[in-house]
Design brief:
mainly beta, globular
Length: 283
């Protein structure tokens, strides 16, 4: 599985994804939700991680208030969490290593919270699946000391809805997760798993992807299905893969005691109900 880039490169078109999240949350240009004037700062920060899941997109650099925060963003990477002051921030996106090629340069209202912003779909005039930001709230109660939490984000633009099962036992972890959607977190025993992805509701089908995963004690993860199921007929050549990244899970905020952000999730990532408890993994 691809590891975090040491230069914190990850994601594509950060500002488009953030803009979708912020507008869905009710932010407006020039004035933050609490009435903060332009160029002033709200109390608090946003912790934002970016996942680049657009298989035919170029690499980019991202700057906030003139400071480069992500460099040479490439497909299949996940950034560290970036700490961004809440309030109005100037965000610029340029071609990687070419500050003169500006794709976006605007002031955006940044809202407090802890998020994973996965950018999915395709870019270009002939995109079969439109560019789609999928915003996941990284808040909730952490797992017990001997357990892990894991959720699935479906970010593969040409793949059907999928089920995910444990190869060793046949137990179903996630069911009928479709593109640009995420599952709930599942509590599972920590250990080693071989996970199989199949088209939803077709247990007899061969897996479209198989991934080995090690889930550590007391850790939350997001597993992101990315790339093309059929790269030979797609506008990019990135094959289907699963990225497994540990999440910076935080307790729900006072303003969001349930850990749910319906204003964002209704627009982007609908949750898929979990199924029954999986069987124990092989150690």
């Amino acid at each position: 599985m691809p590891a975090n880039d040491p230069r914190r490169a990850a994601g594509v078109v950060l500002v488009v994804a953030l803009l979708g999240a912020l507008l869905a949350a009710g932010a407006t240009t020039g004035v933050a939700q609490d009435g903060t004037p332009a160029n002033e700062t709200q109390d608090g920060t946003a912790q934002v991680r970016i996942v680049h899941a657009v298989p035919n997109a170029p690499a980019v650099d991202v700057a906030v208030d003139g400071e480069t925060v992500l460099e040479n963003v490439t497909f299949g990477a996940a950034s560290d969490y970036l700490s961004v002051d809440a309030g109005l921030r100037q965000v610029a996106v340029t071609a990687a290593n070419d500050s003169e090629a500006v794709y976006y340069d605007e002031t955006l209202p940044i809202q407090p919270g802890t998020y994973t912003v996965a950018v999915a779909g395709e870019v270009g005039d002939d995109a079969a699946v439109p560019f789609t930001p999928v915003i996941l709230l990284d808040e909730g109660t952490g797992p017990d000391a001997d357990e892990a939490l894991v959720r699935l984000a479906h970010l593969a633009p040409d793949a059907p809805a999928v089920d995910v099962t444990v190869a060793e036992t046949g137990a179903t972890l996630f069911e009928n997760v479709s593109f640009a959607n995420s599952s709930d977190y599942r509590n599972v025993s920590a250990g080693n798993y071989t996970l199989e992805l199949r088209p939803a509701d077709d247990e007899a089908a061969d897996p479209v992807a198989t991934v080995n995963a090690t889930l550590d004690n007391a850790t939350a993860y997001t597993a992101s299905a990315v790339g093309y199921l059929d790269p030979a007929t797609a506008p990019g050549d990135e094959p289907l893969d699963v990225l497994l990244e540990p999440d910076q899970l935080t307790e729900p905020t006072v303003e969001n005691e349930t850990g749910v952000t319906p204003d964002i999730r209704i627009e982007t990532a609908q949750e898929t109900p979990a199924t029954g408890e999986p069987e124990e993994p092989d150690e």
